[in-house]
Specification:
This protein is mainly α. Helices cover 43% and strands 3% of the residues. It has a two-stranded parallel ribbon. Helix 2 links the parallel strand 1 and strand 2.
């Protein structure tokens, strides 16, 4: 989860995509957030956007807005996708998790990286893109 205004990031490793592990990860993250959640904007994936999790979000975050990404737009959640690389992939690589032990170790690592990432890393946002005549963004 990423707060768009501040860049505050929270991660949790999960094993599988069932609503039970997703709900557990969301509860873990919500318990640690230092700021209130005003809106949820999940990916369109069925692991994020299904009947059980919609009920979860409505029960846990009453009177909060829930929006949905447009189908077939990979960059709709660019803030979360940026952190997938800088906070997870750059540290542990692209190999998937296969065991409960691996998931547990990754969560322990993410608990330590959380402090470093949120308190000691600057948040930089792109101000504008300019398309050059050569076909490159500058």
């Amino acid at each position: 989860m990423v707060d768009v205004a501040t860049g505050w990031s929270e991660c949790a490793a999960i094993l599988g995509r069932s609503h039970l592990v997703m709900e557990d990860a969301f509860r873990r993250i919500l318990n640690r957030l230092p700021i209130p959640v005003l809106e949820i904007h999940p990916d369109n994936g069925s692991e994020f956007f299904n009947t059980v999790l919609l009920k979860f979000w409505k029960d846990v975050l009453k009177d909060r807005q829930l929006s949905r990404s447009r189908p077939f737009h990979k960059n709709e959640n660019r803030f979360a996708e940026e952190n997938n690389f800088s906070l997870v992939r750059a540290i542990v690589g692209y190999q998937g998790l296969d065991t409960v032990a691996q998931c547990s170790i990754l969560n322990q690592l993410l608990d330590l990286l959380w402090l470093y990432h949120n308190f000691f890393q600057p948040v930089m946002r792109l101000k504008e893109k300019i398309f050059s005549p050569e076909g490159f963004y500058t």
